[in-house]
Amino acid sequence: MSEDPFTAKYLAGQVLLVDKPLEWTSFDVVKKIRGTLRIKKIGHAGTLDPLATGLLILCTGKMTKQIETYQGQEKEYTGTLVLGKTTPSLDLETEFDSGVSTDHLTPTDVETVRERFIGAQQQIPPHYSAIRVDGKRAYKDAHKGKTVKMEPRLVDITELEFTRIEIPEVDFRVVCSKGTYIRALARDIGEAVGVGAHLSALRRTRIGDQKIEDALPLADWVTQLKEEHANTRG
């Protein structure tokens, strides 16, 4: 029995640009679309943390061969970091573990450190990450309160712009290489101005030439795919 045109289309390979909703894991999105398409061969091209939103590229069928290509392309993000408060996860996934006054800081103090984060640099990844340390995912030990030694990794930040500085909040836009952790960047900016920081919001706006403006919210994709399937069945 031959496949219906809908299934055949997505097995042949399609690229879906999804605007990932807040609090969904990247795998949650894949699972939802996989269930809607009713095909197994589907994957995403670059994880977004649950507390991040924005562009998630999904590849189906034969287009899954392109996942590695997308993963290697530069990424653009916008976000907000908050100075003076830190968390173990470097974002709002965990509770605050320290806080200091930011009353002495000026926007100029913050802007002054920006350029030191542009270019190739060694970055220490967050303890709360999927990087394997001694064969285990780092976040598993971090969740247990164990100390995890993370080795620095070479990353490249080609653009970093502070679009709003209203201390303690700093809005930013960043263009960076594969493997760059924006939570770690927020941490490092906070340390550079002497008060620490955490990431309070993050949105991925571009991967290579693919832009968030061309993406659909997950709920819209589900509706559209169900309608498309129904129409191909007559």
Question: How many beta-strand segments?
Answer: 14
Arithmetic mean of pLDDT:
93
CATH uppermost class of the largest domain: Alpha Beta
**Strand-residue fraction?**
25-35%
CATH superfamily of the largest domain: Pseudouridine synthase
What is the first-to-last residue Cα distance? 18 Å
Structure explained in plain terms:
By secondary structure, this protein is an alpha+beta fold. It has two domains: 5-72 and 209-232, Pseudouridine synthase, CATH 3.30.2350; 75-207, Pseudouridine synthase (2-Layer Sandwich), CATH 3.30.2350.10. It contains seven helices and 14 strands. The strands form three sheets. Strands 1, 2, 3, 4, 7, 10, 11, 12, 13 and 14 form a ten-stranded mixed beta sheet that branches. The mean pLDDT is 93.
